[in-house]
Amino acid sequence: MIFDLFNKGGIVMYPLLACSVLSLTVIVERTLFWIRKGRETDNRLVDTVLELARRREYEEIKKNTRGTADYVVKILVCGLVHRQYSLAKAMEMAATEEIKRMKQYLSVLDTMITAAPLLGILGTVIGIIHSFDMLGRAGIQDPQAVTGGIAQALLTTAAGLLIAIFTLFPYNYFMSKVEEAALRIEKHATSLEIVHKGNHEEK
């Protein structure tokens, strides 16, 4: 049945199929990415790094963070490595790179949300043009051929809307995860800046 509907939709169904495959691929990849990030999160280690930084035990930080995959820890360590120059700028640069990785491929989903309905409408317009062409040839003697053609043309709009709808929810979820990660980074980076500033004032 699905194969029959696909054929009835016309040539525009092929780019719509490509859009759906592309969206699904990105959704699966980003889902696996965030599952991995969740497993790598180590809030206890973040607190340990902040406490060791307060005590200026930088060698201990190096030992404790060796091999860690937590993005916040890596950002904090990057800042501490460059603390003699600009701790804040170093963390900002590292955070930008992490956020960039988190947003990877999301522009593809954003494009699909816009492009899929437009492709669907294009398919419908082409179908309606074809139906009116049939009406011009057959006249009102064969109305079923015309209405059937319009019904088929509307399949592409339905397909485009379905792709956009089922892409929109994962896209919004992934964007919320990026925002959540950015807040986590900002929170701990600010804490490290306060600790570092306090260490300087004690000197």
Number of domains: 1
Alpha carbon gyration radius: 27 Å
Q: What's the main sheet like?
A: none
Shape: rod-shaped
Distance between the termini: 77 Å
How would you describe the overall organization of this protein?
This protein is 86% helix and 0% strand. It has 203 residues and is mainly α. Helix 2 runs parallel beside helix 8 (143-202), helix 3 (43-54) packs antiparallel against helix 4 and helix 3 packs parallel to helix 5 (71-81). The mean pLDDT is 88.
Task: State the gist of this model.
With 203 residues, the protein is mainly alpha-helical. The protein has one domain (18-202).
List the helices and strands and how they pair.
Layout: H1 2-8, H2 13-40, H3 43-54, H4 58-64, H5 71-81, H6 87-102, H7 106-138, H8 143-202
Helix pairs in contact: 2-7, 2-8, 3-4, 3-5, 3-8, 5-6, 5-8, 6-8, 7-8
Keywords:
single chain, 203 residues, mainly alpha, 8 helices, rod-shaped
